[in-house]
Amino acid sequence: MPDQEGPDGRKAADDTERRRRRAQFLRELNEARALRERVQPRRARAARMRQAMRMRTFRW
Question: Can you tell me the distance from the alpha carbon of 42 to that of 22, in angstroms, rounded to the nearest whole number?
């Protein structure tokens, strides 16, 4: 099913804006994680270990 675009190209503009906002959000999220890791290294390390364990035990 192809994307349908309005006569004024609104869908393309909305998609571009959505991608821009998502990229900004992901940048801020990574920045917040890095800050938390610097401020609470032990807790961040434990969180990384838990995530690694989840990834090892995840079954496809």
Answer: 29
User: pTM for the whole thing?
Assistant: 0.52
Nearest to 37, CA basis, from 46, 27, 24 = 46
Q: What value does the mean pLDDT take over residues 24-38?
A: 92
Rounded Cα distance between 17 and 49, Å, is 36
Instruction: Give 8's Cβ-side CA count (13 Å radius).
Output: 3
Contact 5, 12 (CB under 8 A): yes
pLDDT surpassing 50 at residue 14: yes
Taking a C-beta distance cutoff of 8 angstroms, is the pair 11, 4 a contact?
yes
